[in-house]
Amino acid sequence: MMIHERNDKIWDHMKADCSKCSGLCCTALFFSKTDGFPKDKAAGQPCTNLLNDYRCKIHSQLENQEMKGCIGYDCFGAGQQVTQVIYQGQTWNDIPDRSTEIFDVFINVFKLYQIRYYLIEAASLISAQPLKESIQCLIEENIKMCHYSPESILSLDLEQYRQRSNHILKQVCKLLQQSLHSEDKKVPANFLGGNFKGRDMSGADLSSKLLIAANFEKCLFHGTIFLGADTRDTNFNNADLSEAVFLTQGQVNSAKGNRNTKLPCHLDYPSTWK
After folding, report:
1. Distance of alpha carbon 106 from alpha carbon 111, whole angstroms
2. Domains and CATH numbers, the chain
3. pLDDT in tens, 48-78
4. What is the phi/psi pair of residue 141, to 5°?
5. What DSSP assignment string belongs to the chain?
6. Residue 12: alpha-carbon gap to chain centroid
7. What is the pTM of this model?
8. d(CA 231, CA 252)
């Protein structure tokens, strides 16, 4: 049974392109060394490894230096939207008196892009077709907001929009599990460091679960929901994630896998997966 309708074009604007950004994730956000970043850093302060052309000085060494926070981060394309569209190519270096505003706009746009990512996938789920019109309205509203002026973006009621989106996503998950007859599928209370090698995890709802360092080698994840799951150091070697639901590039980047791991068509293999 297919879970998704295949349409690669819907993901065109949801991939990060660092060459069109101005190092916003490396500047706007708070860093903690304990979370796998180079050192503790206050929000709004450039990372010491950020070069003048907004490239990372140690990008090729991130794996060797165990910079797991950097490796796992993904902005869904919000960075280039802020830099190239909202500020028309101007950077926080070009207009330093507006740098705080730019960083705040980036954080709001990132939140919108994250929600849009889930809504786009929701619209592609065969089981969610009864909700497609409502989902599409939320996507169009999201796109419109991401083209607002900086002042308008900063005045948005994002919490109200997030709640409306979450309401739809919960219905989507329910319809998916009903279609797979997995509403009552039991999942372990604790996944941390556990060994689940070879299990069929199809139809399971792993939303917000801590999957840190769990072993899912050779597991099947057909219609498995990963919404907000923590996949740091999760072992997906030789696993089939091709029809996983709400799995993000950041979750994949944070996990362990190899070239035999099957990923959804819109996600890329991390360079760390050999």
Report:
1. 9
2. 12-179 (no CATH), 184-274 (2.160.20.80)
3. 999 999 999 999 899 889 899 999 999 999 9
4. -65, -40
5. ---B---GGGGTTSS--GGGS-SSHHHHS-B-GGGTSSS-B-TTS--TTB-TTS-BTTGGGTTTTT-HHHHH---TTHHHIIIIIISTT--TTTSGGGHHHHHHHHHHHHHHHHHHHHHHHHHHBGGGGGGHHHHHHHHHHHHHHTTS-HHHHHT--HHHHHHHHHHHHHHHHHHHHHHHT-TT----S--TT-B-TT-B-TT-B-TT-B-TT-B-TT-B-TT-B-TT-B-TT-B-TT-B-TT-BS--HHHHHHSB--TTSB--TTSPPPTT--
6. 15
7. 0.95
8. 7
Distance CA 124, CA 118 (A): 10
Which residues of the chain are modeled with pLDDT < 70? none
90 residue type, one letter: Q
CA neighbor of 252 nearest in space, from 240, 238, 263, 265 = 263
Is the CB of residue 274 less than 8 Å from the CB of residue 257?
no
What token pair was written down for 86?
């909202």
Confirm if 77 and 113 have CB atoms less than 8 A apart: yes
Give residue 99's identity as a one-letter amino acid code.
Answer: S
**Structure tokens that stand for 241 in this block:** 């994630």
CB contact at 8 A, 241 and 211: no
Please give the Cα distance from 239 to 69 (Å, whole number).
23
